[in-house]
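Quick one - inputs below.
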Amino acid sequence: MTSDLAVCLVSGGLDSGVAAALAGREYRLALLHCNYGQRTEGRELQAFHDLADYFAVPEKLRLVVDLDHFRRIGGSSLTDRARGIPAGEPGPGEVPSTYVPFRNANLLALAVSWGEVIGAKRVFIGAMEEDSSGYPDCREDFFRVFNLAIELGTGPGCEIRVETPLIHLAKAEVVRRGLEIGAPLHLTWSCYVSPGPEPCGLCASCRLRARGFQEAGVSDPAGGGSVSE
Amino acid sequence: MTSDLAVCLVSGGLDSGVAAALAGREYRLALLHCNYGQRTEGRELQAFHDLADYFAVPEKLRLVVDLDHFRRIGGSSLTDRARGIPAGEPGPGEVPSTYVPFRNANLLALAVSWGEVIGAKRVFIGAMEEDSSGYPDCREDFFRVFNLAIELGTGPGCEIRVETPLIHLAKAEVVRRGLEIGAPLHLTWSCYVSPGPEPCGLCASCRLRARGFQEAGVSDPAGGGSVSE
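Output:
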């Protein structure tokens, strides 16, 4: 544990909850949450604050940012109310309709801007390449190159680099890793569709989560059901 | 002239005005403007719409986005009202206090998100490496690497790459190039300080602009004065 700061992108989901817990073992946490017009904005924000409270992150190290222009930009079933969120998961090689174009670049750029000002050393993001293979901005190569852009595009004193501790894990491994380190999985929210209090249990994100817990052999402390095909 | 779209980042300044004019010779224009809490926000937005009107860009291909979290993030004299904007220019090798941390990465990421949705082929930005050598996110290398991040982080159908047509020009050359192609220099606004109608004439941006026109041997059609040392 150093006194160095890490900015963690925390959507409020399972992955970002575990990523933040991992970051918190080595760094002081600064948590960043973005509303970007997604349907479950309010419920995700609640999960963010629940996690921030759990990690005892002071107010000045929480940043909540509205990127509601993503709704205006559209191009994703997550933000575009005229498109339905598909039940089930996309086929192999397919970019899911829930892909928000180049979203992670926007989130990382923002995290780096904040991190540069507060003198952070790291930016953590809970992206997973395998379980979200259809999202191009979740690939390890993307993050590797983004780190070069940070090195070139920030001031001389800035040493930020992006860490992706979950990048090679499958969902069940994230669950196991989270349990191992005592991450507050019960406070996380993954559903793409329901505004709360219960997840829909049908969307791709609910299914992926449910299968993760099932494969890990534990029940979901946030109350998600099992996978129904 | 193709029917392909290019997203141009248009602050409303001299450089973005010339960059957009250059882009408009080859592409249909989609113009993006960001308010990020800078002092001259209102005047810059006016310049943006003046330029968009001049280029006859339809409303649906104009996007104005509020990134006012940059004011909350701070770290720059451009957005932090508690800090003064220095008169004159920074010393060699110095990062100017007007540097907004990693701003260009945020602007480019947003431009790419929009561009991916509307099917654009290019993103134009009027960055200049030499006349803004203190801004790390104005280096050609930064843009080169950002292009790799775009290639890796966007969907399979997306061919966007960033173009920086002014990257190796000095300010006087931008003025000359702008005059050569008939860019509407009279509609642009460069001042960092004044809310209008007249530029302050003293800030680094005013001085750089005035010197550019002086060296190009023409008077500034937007009415900027000459450089007083």
